[in-house]
Design a protein that fits this description.
By secondary structure, the chain is α+β, with helices and mostly antiparallel strands. 28% of the residues lie in helices and 20% in strands. A hairpin with a 7-residue loop joins strand 7 and strand 8.
């Protein structure tokens, strides 16, 4: 196959359709010349002797026993820190990435060497509700360390377009976090191509409406009492898991796993989690995902499920036994994590 030196000049080969997305983003560097990046370290307990050097990223964000704090709990602790220590944050808008980084448009009113905050968090599991048996007013101590890491120059983004050697990844990550904390992360979205809308079939439009309604917290269908005794006779949670595998090619993209769980007694509302696979045959971080989904179920149903119905798709018969054993272990581990909390 001959390769043309200029576009449109080829005389051999077949034409291929190229699909691409393009968006225009403008950043007023005059209004926000810098973005301040802070490292945040959250440790369970009220010990204020830990410092940022001692509680580095890999050592921080842990509970007694070595288990890492989940993002939902981390986010709740950070929110409580802002409310309980307003002098350390002032009236500055903060964007938190849910892990260990804060971004602000101006410097926080804290010392140059950082600050250590004692925080009382009443959300035991990070979902804002006290589990059964916990009296009102119960709270849990945390130590929050905040230290300035770097100042990001917003003019660097424009420079990166003309100079490929400029590393703008930290700035892009900061802007992405700010966008998610501002507009993007606040509203659910539904993707649909123009070709699908152009056909405008009733079935396609009805399917889109069902998806949008579910994402907005609506209910598309309710099972009648008595039809499914397992769901109505006792609190039951339905869980479904699947894995999307890319093509079997060298240097191929990673697999994506998804898990959904019911939130109400009619199994009409669901919460979902996604994760990038660390391996080709397992659902990565499944115990952590199940832990979070059980918490979401309790948050909405206000009671613990007595039955768990688990559906798994995308498993061949040759691997079924291995997958069943592995994911049963993940379920048991999630139960132990709940028992500790």
């Amino acid at each position: 196959m001959r390769v043309s030196s200029r576009a449109g000049g080829g005389s051999s080969g077949s034409a291929q359709q190229l699909k691409s997305n393009c968006c225009r983003v403008t950043l007023d560097a005059a209004k926000c010349p810098q973005i301040f990046q802070y490292h945040i370290n959250v440790v369970s307990g009220g010990d204020t002797t830990s410092t940022m050097s001692e509680g580095a990223e890999n050592k921080g964000r842990r509970q007694p026993g070595g288990r890492r704090l989940v993002k939902s709990l981390l986010r709740q602790v950070v929110i409580d820190a802002m409310e309980q220590h307003p002098n350390s944050f002032g009236e500055i808008s903060i964007a938190y990435d849910g892990s260990n980084t804060l971004f602000s448009p101006s410097a926080l009113p804290i010392p140059d060497d950082g600050v250590v905050l004692n925080v009382r968090c009443s959300a035991r599991n990070g979902y804002g509700l006290d589990p059964p048996g916990v009296n009102n007013g119960w709270s849990r101590p945390f130590t929050v360390n905040i230290e300035l890491v770097k100042e990001l120059d917003t003019n660097l983004l424009q420079t990166a377009f003309s100079d490929s050697t400029v590393n703008a990844k930290p700035l892009v990550y900061a802007l992405d976090t700010i966008a998610k904390a501002g507009i993007v992360g606040r509203y659910p979205s539904q993707c649909v191509t123009a070709a699908v809308l152009g056909r405008a079939k009733v079935q396609v439009l009805a399917n889109l409406c069902l998806k949008i309604n579910a994402k907005l917290g609506g209910c598309n269908a309710i099972s009648l009492e008595g039809i499914l005794p397992l769901l109505h006779d006792a609190p039951t949670i339905l869980i479904g898991a699947d894995v999307c595998y890319p093509k079997m090619e060298k240097n191929s993209r990673q697999s994506i796993s998804s898990v959904a769980a019911s939130l109400d007694r009619h199994s009409s509302k669901y919460a979902a989690r996604l994760a990038v696979q660390s391996g080709h045959n397992d659902v990565s971080h499944l115990p952590q995902i199940l832990w979070e989904l059980f918490i979401e179920h309790y948050k909405h149903a206000r009671r613990q499920p007595k039955h768990v119905v688990y559906y798994r798709s995308g498993v061949s018969f040759s691997r079924m036994d291995d997958v069943v054993q592995a994911e049963m272990r993940s379920l048991r581990k999630a139960f132990r994590m709940l028992a500790k909390d």
